[in-house]
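ok, trying the design again with the full structure, not the truncated one.
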C-alpha cells in the first residue's frame, strides 16, 4: 500500500488541479506516480522533464533504444513500477522484453543502463569509449540526464511504495498476454 495517497482531484487546490489538467493536456494520462506527485505541482513539473529529455533523444536514438535503456536502468535498480512501465513500452512496440535481441547500439545502451541502475560509478570504460565514439557530447549529456531522471522516478515510486498502475498488470513478467503481431 502506498505511503502517500494519490491526490483526489475533487479535494485538490486550484494549483494542483491546474497541474493535473496540464499533465493530461501534455501527455494524455495520469499514472499513479503522477497522481501522488500532484501533492506538489513543482515536483510533478520536475519529474515531467523526463519526457523532455526523451524527446531530445528520440531523433538520435529512436524509441526502442530509449525503452531498452530505461528498462535496463529500472531492472538493475529493482524498480517494479519503472521496470513494468518499460516492459509495456517494449511490448506495445512489438518486442518481447524477455527475449530481446538488441542491435549493437542497443546492447551498448543496455550495458550502460544496467551499470547506471546498479551503481553509476560502475560504468565500464569500454562502454563509455564506445558511447563517446558513437554520440555527440550533447547526446551523451541528454542520455545521462535522462538516466538520472529515470533513477529519480524509480527512487520516488519505490520510496513511497507507489501502487502499480492497473494498466501495467497485463505486462508483468509471466503475465498471460498476446504478443503483438
Amino acid at each position: 500500500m502506498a505511503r502517500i495517497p494519490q491526490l483526489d482531484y475533487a479535494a485538490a487546490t486550484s494549483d494542483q488541479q491546474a497541474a493535473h489538467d496540464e499533465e493530461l493536456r501534455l501527455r494524455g494520462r495520469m499514472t499513479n506516480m503522477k497522481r501522488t506527485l500532484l501533492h506538489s505541482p513543482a515536483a510533478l513539473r520536475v519529474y515531467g522533464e523526463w519526457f523532455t529529455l526523451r524527446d531530445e533523444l528520440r531523433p538520435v536514438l529512436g524509441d526502442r533504444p530509449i525503452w531498452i535503456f530505461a528498462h535496463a536502468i529500472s531492472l538493475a535498480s529493482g524498480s517494479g513500477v519503472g521496470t513494468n512501465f518499460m516492459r509495456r513500452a517494449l511490448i506495445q512496440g512489438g518486442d518481447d522484453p524477455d527475449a530481446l535481441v538488441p542491435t549493437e547500439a542497443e546492447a551498448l545502451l543496455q550495458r550502460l543502463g544496467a551499470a547506471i541502475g546498479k551503481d553509476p560509478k560502475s560504468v565500464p570504460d569500454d562502454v563509455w569509449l564506445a558511447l563517446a565514439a558513437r554520440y555527440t557530447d550533447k547526446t551523451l549529456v541528454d542520455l545521462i540526464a535522462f538516466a538520472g531522471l529515470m533513477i529519480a522516478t524509480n527512487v520516488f515510486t519505490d520510496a513511497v511504495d507507489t501502487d502499480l498502475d492497473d494498466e501495467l498488470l497485463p505486462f508483468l513478467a509471466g503475465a498471460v498476454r498476446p504478443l503483438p503481431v
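Keeping the full-length input from now on. Residues 158 and 175 are 22 Å apart (CA to CA).
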